[in-house]
Specification:
Elements (H helix, E strand, L loop, with lengths): L1 H28 L1 E8 L2 E3 L2 E2 L5 E3 L3 E4 L5 E6 L3 E6 L11 E3 H4 L16 H7 L5 E4 L3 E5 L12 E8 L2 E6 L2 E2 L2 E5 H4 L1 E2 L2 E2 L7 E8 L3 E12 L5 H13 L4 H15 L2 E2 L1 H12 L1
Parallel strand pairs: 9-18, 9-19
Antiparallel strand pairs: 1-4, 1-6, 2-3, 2-5, 5-8, 6-7, 10-14, 11-12, 11-17, 13-14, 15-16, 17-18
Length: 275
């Protein structure tokens, strides 16, 4: 019995080690073909040129401001790589190539009616960074489960200068709204929301019960970053990427550096700016 248990444990251990080895090997074998470059980008200290092949373990530096690198691989297809937008000194920004790779498709978190607490939490990323592409986001809920009136409503809480701030979220019919301007007002005065991303989302029921929906990490889109997206899209169109490839790349870029936007909101935002 002990021997059988030992053998089973050893088999599981071997399987886990083998799985990790296979995953590591697949990353190590990833090859990225350089299709085009905008600006100056280096690999392991040497300038990258078109036609070169890059490995997942290569150290990449975006030397010039807003540099872009168009690559392709069997695993991910074509994609555009760039430095983290908040990085001020590109010449000092070094990345391992595999950590730059991020392929994403528009989230399945669409504009459907939220009927459970878990669904509402999931809509806002379920604790993962969630990006609102604009000044506000509106969420539909099932009226019979989440009635919205003077005694029943959603609210958010956050810490501001050591004080807990509770903000009632405006609503109409079966929709409640998270509005940036209203969220960041304390006693009627507008406050900077910079650095405030961690929120608690709650439902106040019948003026008596507080239902905890969950923690939410919210980020509102800053138009200061729009120019970078414009340049990326222009670069991809010039290199004849398909509309689907461009859209997926933009979504992946937002998801990686700012937070995952809602699928329907992203499509509306993308079509408004780039179609």
């Amino acid at each position: 019995m002990i021997r059988q248990k030992y053998n089973t444990t050893m088999t599981k251990t071997f399987f886990i080690v083998l799985l990790i080895s296979i995953q590591h090997l697949s990353f190590a074998q990833d090859v990225y073909n350089v299709i085009n470059i905008k600006g100056k980008v280096s690999r392991n200290g040497k300038n990258i040129r078109r036609g070169q092949k890059l490995k997942a373990t290569d150290k990449i530096k975006f030397v010039s401001p807003r540099a872009l690198l168009l690559v392709s691989s069997q695993r991910y297809g074509r994609m555009v790589l760039s430095a983290k937008p908040a990085q001020k000194s590109m010449s000092e920004a070094a990345y391992i190539l595999k950590n730059l790779v991020s392929k994403g498709r528009a989230s399945a978190r669409g504009d459907k009616k939220m009927v459970t607490r878990e669904m509402i939490h999931y809509y806002f990323g379920k604790g993962e960074p969630h990006l609102i592409l604009g000044e506000e986001a509106t969420v539909k809920v099932k009226k019979s489960l989440f009635p919205l009136n003077k005694k029943s409503f959603f609210f958010m809480s956050y810490q501001y200068k050591g004080e807990k701030i509770n903000k009632k979220l405006p609503f109409e019919d079966n929709r409640f709204t998270v509005n940036k301007d209203r969220l960041f007002r304390v006693e009627g005065k507008k406050v900077s929301g910079k650095g405030i991303n961690d929120f608690g989302l709650f439902y106040y029921k019948n003026g008596e019960e507080v239902i905890d929906i969950g923690r939410v990490k919210l980020f509102f889109w800053d138009n200061a970053h729009q120019k970078k997206i414009d340049e990326m899209v222009k670069f991809m169109k010039a290199n004849e990427l398909t509309q689907s490839e461009i859209q997926d790349t933009v979504f992946a870029y937002l998801q990686k550096y700012f937070g995952e936007p809602n699928g329907d909101e992203f499509k509306t935002w993308y079509q408004k700016h780039y179609q």
